[in-house]
Amino acid sequence: MIETYNYEGKGYHPFLIREGWQVAQLNYVEKHGLDDIDQIEVHNQSDEAFILFKGKAVLVEVQIEQEDIHFNCQYMKPGVTYNIPAGTWHEIAMDRDAEIIIIERANTHKQDCSYSKLTESQKQILYSKIKDQLS
Question: Does 110 score more than 80 pLDDT?
């Protein structure tokens, strides 16, 4: 039996959940835009893989060193799998047409997420780096 899934709503939606892993879709939603991200997240126990299949997106790896924060931005190419290893702070910036598939440990979004708010100056640096990736 072939199962099919399609999610047309906004935001994050896990749709294929099996023993120990899940597939979800992330469609554009506020706070994941190209210039409105206000926090970053980390999963300490699970890698998280991303595949862009529509729109434009930038995957952001964040390195935190005491008081300094550094953003490594990667323009995502459709059909390419990108992995964020467990313990890596990250975020994703998307245009309004973006749709992304996420593969991760089951219930990561419920059990293994920590968040950190960005300061105004950090947000401006991040938005500038995202814009650079899109040009």
Answer: no
